[in-house]
Backbone:
């Protein structure tokens, strides 16, 4: 899982497909990078078997967007029930949590930091993810749900 927004599009650290994805409509950007990344990795592998278990996921903005899948569970999990309404207000502005972002200043983590000064992603993000749960994230975030199904299929293969 990588964050599209932060992937370099040019220079020596450019990610496969990232520059070309800039010209695509928003819904196609992450898919283009995932496809190019998978293709590039597969050309480096001599044996095709490991490729079956490489399942890239490009989240368009940030991991924290997934946490907005259930604002009640999010706020409860981080012991900040007082933030439920503020989190829900952010969530209600978008069709899906995966769409939450407008600029570097309004990325999901920045929105959370505005509500929780000193927000610590590794601790509070993990607690919130555990509270929200994968089932709810899949229900609210279609790209994330597709990725999890692909992961499950990769593990189920003989």
Residues:
């Amino acid at each position: 899982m990588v964050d599209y927004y932060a992937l370099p599009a040019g220079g020596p650290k450019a990610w496969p497909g990232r520059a070309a994805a800039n010209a695509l409509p928003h819904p196609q950007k992450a898919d283009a990078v995932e496809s190019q990344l998978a293709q590039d990795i597969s050309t480096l592998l001599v044996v095709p078997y490991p490729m079956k278990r490489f399942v890239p996921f490009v989240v368009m903005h940030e991991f924290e967007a997934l946490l907005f899948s259930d604002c009640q569970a999010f706020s409860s999990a981080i012991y900040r029930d007082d933030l439920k309404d503020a989190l829900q207000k952010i969530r209600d502005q978008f069709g899906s949590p995966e769409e939450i972002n407008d600029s570097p200043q309004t990325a999901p983590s920045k929105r959370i930091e505005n509500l929780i000064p000193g927000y610590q992603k590794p601790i509070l993000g993990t607690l919130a993810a555990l509270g929200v749960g994968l089932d709810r994230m899949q229900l609210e975030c279609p790209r994330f749900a597709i990725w999890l199904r692909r992961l499950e299929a990769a593990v189920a293969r003989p």
